[in-house]
Design brief:
The protein has 244 residues and is of the alpha/beta class. Helices cover 40% and strands 21% of the residues. β8 and β9 form a beta hairpin.
Amino acid sequence: MNPKQKPMVVIIEDDRSLASLIAEQLSDAGFDTHVFHKGGSALRHLESNHAHLALLDLSLPDMDGLEVLARLQRLRSPVPVVFLSATDGEAQVARALDAGADDYVRKPFGPAELCARLRAVLRRTETARDLRLTRNADLATAVFNFGPALVHPERLELDFGGGKRCKVGRKELGILYHLHANPGVIVSRHALIHAVWGVHADIRSRSLDQYVVKIRELYARHGANLSCFRTIHGIGYWYEPEGA
């Protein structure tokens, strides 16, 4: 997030007076806000509009807050969620956090505490996003071999030895890493897409094949043999490093 950009918080709260008060408090603290009183209208908005965070009431008139959370997680760009609720039972809090919420704020609350919690969630999500390359690999992933090349996730680079190096895309790196982690077995196209893009990603097999073609072209361009990596037509891919 640009340091000069105000964080956009979507407030999903059916109590109109409380939602208005929260929006005013967040605005005074340097946030931009967009208020919704039902889960459905908020979800429709977030399908095509960006937000940095959602502040979500656990009880809404049209659907349960946990259902809204589940549907937010299926968006192409998932939104961090902080629950807001008068229910403070330990079991309910644990259920919300286990479902994937980033924090849980109990009513009543003070504006200073709420803003501090929102900023903490934004810091955590921004840090995680900075490191994340794909769903299965990040900049801290250890260097690994794929065929005759050494793959450097921290540099997004393939090293073929003899000074021959080239950059590799994030998705291509995620594909290489998943196959490297599953040697000697057939990895289906769906399994590979889920590993790299996520379970709910709208990625077609043809798109995956195009990324694989890019990988093969990189190796061929540097005179590297990739016979250890095969396409299993109609199913997926198979990788078995030498000596495995």
